[in-house]
Amino acid sequence: MIETVPTPAGDARIHWYPAPQARLVLALGHGAGGGVEARDLQALAAALPARGVTVALVEQPWRVAGKKVAPAPKTLDAAWTALWPALRKPGHPVVAGGRSAGARVACRTAAGLGAVAVLALSFPLHPPGKPEKSRADELTGAGLPTLVVQGAKDPFGRPEEFPAGTRPVPVPHGDHGFAVPKKADVGQEEALAGLTEAVAGWLEGVGAGADG
């Protein structure tokens, strides 16, 4: 089901993947270089409803409008904030998340919106080749239980580069889009299965805490 939601930046779209017996909603925003068709977002949308998690893939207004360049962070945050009531409508606790730029939006806004946790996929810890320009404060400042899933070869920040306390779950051989080379000892489907299993296991703990 696709729901169109008006925001100050234009219409956004929520792609709903409902769980038959939902206990959580996982809201996921996309990155600056792609949309909700990203392989990790699609893998989670396919796997998690059977585990009691409704997945909502959020398409930001700039993508809905067909633009190729993402707007400023403030505009992304405003759109995400405006559509949050639609994400809460099912009546379940909401985990804020996203990949890359979408993960940054989630980290910046989650606490203020009442999210119960944050899922950061491919968090862009720094621009490629510029580790001195760290965005670690954005990640650690979320103020909520946070799971980071990071490709082992991500040029925007490898798992070992993250600050103490974040402990990212590594995706072996994965790049920023969690693609793995064909010559790797882990196949693409296996890598994505590991990602979804790690997220599902973490969400079980989040759900228990939110229910309590």
TrEMBL record:
The keyword Cell wall biogenesis/degradation does not apply. GO terms for molecular function: hydrolase activity. It comes from the Bacteria. The keyword Chaperone does not apply. Keywords: Hydrolase. It comes from Streptomyces telluris. This is Hydrolase. InterPro entries: AB_hydrolase_fold (IPR029058), KANL3/Tex30_Abhydrolase (IPR046879), NSL3/Tex30 (IPR026555). Residues 25-203 form the KANL3/Tex30 alpha/beta hydrolase-like domain. PANTHER family: TESTIS DEVELOPMENT PROTEIN PRTD (PTHR13136), TESTIS-EXPRESSED PROTEIN 30 (PTHR13136:SF11).
